[in-house]
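Page 47, continued from p. 46.
Same chain as before, 119 aa.
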Amino acid sequence: MKSQADYNDSEIEKAKSHIVVEIIQYVPNAILSKTIIKKTTGNITVSSLDAGEELEEKHSPFDTYVQIIDGTAELVIDKKLFTLKLGQGIIIPAHARHKLNAHEQFKMISTTIKSGYED
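Result:
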């Protein structure tokens, strides 16, 4: 069964150096997320997905940038398949249907920008 074992909504400590890939660990059969920054104009989150996990299809009214910081992820955007490897990133366009699959475990940073849509 797919589970989200931990979601920490508080930001990480400011003005303190960190190694981003070490902010979050892998947990068997789980998806973990930790907030780096959360503001009304957007947020940055680091997540880990164990092998076999998936983030179900959804959409966001805002652009989201995803970058893989460990492992390899399968991302589907509007039925188009992308395989993202360590260091690769992609912009998920606002309103696009998307989902992520972990055929192997991976970690990612996702950045959502909520401003700039006023036009």
